Amino acid sequence: MAKIVLAMATTHGPQLHTTVEQWQLRVKADKGRTHPFRGKMLSFDELVQLRDIEGLDVKSSMDSQHKYHARCHAAMEQLADKWEEVGADIAVVLGNDQNEVYETEELNPPFMVFFGDKIPNYPQTEEQRAALPPGVAEAEHGHATEEYTEYPGVPELGAHIIQTMMENEFDVAASKIWPKHARNGASHAFGHIYRQVMRDKVVPNVPVYQNTFFPPNLPTAKRSYQFGQIVRKAIDTWQSDKKVAVFASGGMSHFVIDEEFDRKFVSAIKNHDKNYLTSIPLKDLQSGTSELKSWISLAGLLENEKAQMNEIDYVPCYRSQAGTGTANGFYWWDLAR
Ligand SMILES: [Fe+2]
Hints:
By secondary structure, the chain is α/β, with parallel strands linked by helices. About 35% of the residues lie in helices and about 20% in strands. The chain has one domain: LigB-like (Protocatechuate 4,5-dioxygenase, Chain B), CATH 3.40.830. It has helices at about 20-30, 45-50, 55-60, 60-85, 125-130, 155-165, 190-195, 220-235, 260-270, 275-280, 295-300, and strands at about 5-10, 35, 40, 90-95, 110-115, 120, 150, 175, 205-210, 245-250, 255, 310-320, 325-335.
């Protein structure tokens, strides 16, 4: 039987692939819209007012931002070193899409498992890049290759996950050929793992998508957890001698950072607090924070594991006094023993 030897949970956002100076490009966009925060939609100015006592002026100073940046990059290196050290043969990557593979208004599966043999990665066209929000095109190199590239899939494991899902009354979408209009091939949630954690030495892998962002077909936290439990069942029953790694790619709180929420969340994952994780309401899993559903799936997958959760770092990368930015976290579990 296949054996899971490693699990990793990591954020993947644009701030990890841009300079502190480029982070400032996003602040302009932050000011122009409302943001979900603790169940309410608030403007930039309302957030500044509400969070006045948190000292976010200091936490978002340029000096602080440079420190966040350095810590994140040190943590990314550590995570990639750990990946290399373990030497898994195969990966299953739990992630999401943001209008990159699926034009969400055209078709948007709540859960999708890829079981083809080729996963493409390539840069967007100049026209597509120009249409991106400020500070996002600049980050593309973090997940997309400069030239057209193909990574190997694992058709047998992908198909086995799909069959196991169906047998367990979990009806997932199945894809064997990568959707042709995908902007970068694999979405940034996956490209980040390929480029930053695997350092472009990509092992055969199964991309597993869930729709975390876009209503109306948002899976609940409970459903995401159950999904992970069945992915586990599938890997455990796959007739293979391969060593498997599982990734959760996404989160943490953004585009408004909520350290209290993140700390509680991490502690729940660490302590296998299924009740907490499965009852997080959708209103608390909005916008970029919704990507933590991939982590909830990973928690379902690790439900009966004794291995400790290891934290490399948790870095709340504030970019403004309103608390906008992305909280970044880097975690792993050694399941080889
Ligand atoms: Fe993302």
